[in-house]
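pasting input
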Amino acid sequence: MSDLNKNYFEKITYRDALRLAMHDAMQEDKNIIIMGEDVANYGGAYGATKDLLKLFGKERVIDTPISEPAIVGAAVGAAMSGLRPVAELMYVDFFGMSMDQIANQLAKIRYMFGGQISAPMVLRTQGGTGRSGGAQHSQSLESWIMHTPGLFLSMPAKPNDAYHLLRHALKIDNPTIFIEHKLLYNTTGTLDKNDIGAPFGKANILRKGKDVSIISYSRMINYAEKAAEILEKENISAEVIDLRTLYPLDRETIITSVNKTKRALVLSESYYTSSVPSEITSIIFENCYKVLKKPVIRYTAEDTPVPVAPNLEKNYIPTIEKIVEYTKKVCN
Amino acid sequence: MSNTLLPKLYKTMKRIRTFEERVSELFIKGESAGTMLHLSIGEELGPACVGTAMQENDTFTTHHRGHGIFVARGGDPNRMLAEIAGKKDGYCKGKGGSMHIADMTLGHLGANAIVGGGIPTVVGAAMSYKYLKQERVSVAFFGDGAMQQGILYESMNMASLWKLPVVFCCINNQYGMGTKIENAVGVKDFSKRAESFGLNTLHVNDLDVESAYHKSKEIIDSARKFKPGFIEIECYRFYGHARMDKSPYRDESEESEKRKLDPISFASNQMIKNNILDEADIKKIDNDIMIEMDKAMEFAINSPINDETEIFKDVYSENDPLPVSLDEKINKILNN
């Protein structure tokens, strides 16, 4: 990171936007530490903490043993005691081992103890398919977090949002779960540090449209944008909404958009059943049922574990072709 | 000492190494399913000695770096490589991949991509054997990284409390991904931890596979008599964590020095020195193995891919209906 002091980046990777956010936050706040498996010497399994050890030293950038429950739990304790940890779980699938510390401890500290204390920390992790990582290294488990009151949840798709949401998460007094996608790290975009940035709970309308609302987050946003371009050539004007944060959730933007377009497709790489898309679909039904011209469609991954075989994995999640096909049917 | 044992152990180690080299080749040819391929080159001694000391009906689980253990337990290289390629003929129909190879008929209760994830499985397996009065031992293979997982100690305690036919086998290759063991533990003496649970312990820290075999056999035989055990085999991971990892976190001088600690060339030298086999015999063994593994790679490459309906199979029992595909769900809604 040679141009750390620049304020505007024409082209920055999602990975570097995150690194820069941690770097800038750590310069501002001496109590921010980073801890996780291979975050220091190795620079993170996906490179998001590269060089931070050199810049901030081993007191602040800490390699941990492979002990997921204790990584999260120790971060909770540190957050209760004056530090502001960024804990990293290498794969979102490791929620499986650390869910007690996330859901029973971190999420409940403030409420159970009557508001005496909070645990202001960020838990960064990454999920999703695309690398043939298989059933235990490719899941999308955001609904576990959204199902747990007490946690902020951020899943940005664009480098600018990744930067600003992470910076914001490191200033607020709530614990935030920050879920990245393994295939987003190399994607690029512009970053404007002076941007007032993506505040939590504010969706971004990436593309204005009048015929249908495609509502999504994380990597699937890039699929939605590509599908919208194809649909435009077929005279269908799709509005693409990037939710950016799932808690707080920008219900207003969703409702306003669907009231205008009267049609909606909710797109996600998570499961179909009891998922974030289920929740968003309910919100649309509850609030827009009078105007809806077609049922709201949830287009997600299949309700099965993730297969390894590349041809199966590719068809396990939404495809751009199918997004186009279903959207056309919704608009028919 | 027997003069057939060492050639047998040598052959197992050489088969493991050659197999792993073909995994690497499969990746280079663009035929592997992804890059999460964890090679056990340099670590062959543990799988060979413990795998050989186990009996036919014994079972085991492995960590993500488990190819070698299954080769030692009779895994078919054809079906293993087909699995790693994500193909139909793979052990798990290409749905599990390198990190989830399993074969119930050979007692392989599954490889795991969660560090420590397969350890309690052997406790449960041993409970069954004890209850069903089957004389079987179940062995959990895992890396030094898993020594820092709480579930290992929960499992050790149960094994000790219920006197189960279990062996916990740590293949200590000195690195948890990019983190050196010294940077991951306060106290490095793993046997002490196991001793505190009342387990029999064995610490192997040399290249003598024959002696490691005899000592491992004692631990396993003792487990069969309901005295659970712990084996630590120290070795060195010759290459990176996964296929893409070039190990930037360690010096080349460290690597070249440690790669001299090669259990395969050690065994080969021992055989020659003790007049068990001569160089020509060994060359013949190596050559046969090369042919076997080349054929396995061809088999994997030529194995067909699954069609998309395979996504929905094996989620529930075969007597239950398949999960409904999204395409069917969505079209049903839209065609209403």
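fyi Chain A has a mean pLDDT of 97.
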